Amino acid sequence: MFTSLTERNGYLFRNWLIGEKAVASIDLTYNSRNLSRYELNTTYFILNRYGTPISAYEKRVARLCLRSVRKIGVDLKEDSPPYLFDYYLGSSATDDFVPPPFHHAKDNWGFYNGLNSVGKYGESIPMNAPLNTITNTNQLKGLCFIREGVYGPVLTAKPGYAKNGLLKQIVYPTSGTLSYQYVQNTGTINGSTNNVGGVHVSSTSATDGGFDN
User: Fold this and answer.
1) Is 40 helix (H, G, I), strand (E, B) or coil?
2) Pure H helices in 1-70
3) In this structure, what are the phi and psi dihedrals at residue 75, rounded to the nearest 5 degrees?
4) Rounded CA separation 205/178 (Å)
5) Scanning 40, 77, 146, 181, which has its CA 20 to 30 A from the CA of 169?
């Protein structure tokens, strides 16, 4: 059996992987006969929406995501509807979006935490500033979890923000769905319950694609 990959032309999906393109399809063949093909439809997270990055800023914040997978069967003749994927994109809040690659706003565990990342004296840090342009010493100390007058761990997780970019729903070829809900992780620190890094699946729900779902 042989597997081949076809790359998709267009915008290079990672600024630090110059020349790399998204995979458009995967072909499985045996003795030169096509057993199946999987067509991968991709787009980009641009903060809290899907789209194709145009401006230099959009290209800097874009992250590749998979929107659908469609299987074509033996000899590329059997066709079926695709599996569709939807993701959590955040909200209209200033800091509630899918974080760009290497974004500076992170909690103690490395998860995106929006405006909970502040400077040493609690001052805000611009959300759209690349990390290599932040030169203010107090802001840099804050990103290292140093706070004026605070002795001990500074916990900066922001509830729910770590789910941005995670899978929200799968729509099956039969029109049924599988949806995911997440909640913030918590932990006991110094005898009290606190928000800690990341989220976990709290529940799933399914519909059958029929009239009553």
Assistant:
1) strand
2) 56-61
3) 60, 20
4) 6
5) 77
**Residue 47, Ramachandran bin (φ over 0: left; ψ between -120 and 50: alpha; else beta):** left
Length of the chain: 213
What distances in angstroms separate CA 4 from CA 38, 134, 163, one per listed residue? 11, 43, 33
Closest Cα partner for 118 from 135, 102, 97, 140? 140
User: CA 196, CA 142: separation in Å to the nearest integer?
Assistant: 18
Distance of CA 88 to the CA centre of its chain: 8
**Each residue's pLDDT tens digit, 162-175:** 999 999 999 999 88
Write out the two tokens for 168.
């929200």
Global pTM? Answer: 0.85
Tracing tokens 């565990």 back to the chain, one arrives at 109
Place of tokens 């072909």: 27
Which H or E run includes 50?
Answer: strand 50-51
Q: What is the pLDDT of residues 20-76, one digit of tens each?
A: 678 888 888 888 888 888 899 999 999 999 999 999 899 889 999 999 999 888 877
